[in-house]
Design a protein that fits this description.
This protein has 12 helices and 2 strands. By secondary structure, it is mainly alpha-helical. It has a two-stranded antiparallel sheet with strand order 1-2. Strand 1 and strand 2 form a beta hairpin. Helix 1 runs parallel beside helix 11. It starts with 12 loop residues before the first helix and ends with a helix.
Length: 294
Amino acid sequence: MADLTIFTGIYSPDIVAMLVGGLLLTGSIAGLLAGLLGVGGGIVIVPVLYLLFTYLDMPSSIVMHLAVATSLVTIIPISISSAKSHHTKGAVDLDVLKSWGPFILIGAAIGGAASGSIDSCYLQLLFGMIALYVSVSMIISREKTKPKDAAKDGNTDQISPAGRGLRGSGIAGAIGGASALMGIGGGAIAVPILSALALPVHRAVGTAAAFGFLIALPGSIGFIWSGIGVDMRPPLSLGFVSLPAAIIIFSTSMFTIRLGSRIAHALPAARLRRAFGGFLLLSALNILSGVVAN
């Protein structure tokens, strides 16, 4: 059992079992939310890992870095599976993915590379404030009417002109950078933005799921690079990534993604937005409480 004490120190079998069980449950919930809401699961994974690493007495200067980096690694396989599930239902907007994808990738790479120079408290604050704003917006907002030019073209699923061209590139880059620093797959930010740009919420969820891989891969590489050589990291860490924690989480998440996707496409759009906002609000308040405590 001693070999399972993968974070720090030597813990009793009961504590090890509790930690592993908590991570397995987190993975299951993350997979469900990935399919249901188009998020990479990081909106649940980051707060749980933050609490876990804090409980294990990781230095406060790196605890949020560990949570964000480990979350990003788990999002890589979760987002691929979630995107495939939504794509089979025709819910991934390939035009938006092609036009926004390169800039999301660049933004995530910059965010990941810059992570090592950002204080853990600021990462908490960024996660909490953006998540809080987005959650309230999703709970109180109504689905936008379709853009006029899309109606003329006979395409009721076309994104608003405000999301195209240079402005769209800037939005995509900001989504990538902020999401990488928050340790999420982008859905928490991209879904409400795409909805505001008149993309139907189910297509916004599916497209945001595809963004997850573009954010998580470069973001993970950045956190790995910036965390190499940092003291007091958990054993078996690669940079800021706790490999054992990542493996445990996505080992269960893969089994619940399809269930979440089926539930998403059976729910009315308004109910889906409110569900998304509710989960996000709880996560935001949890993270912000840690900032206040410090």
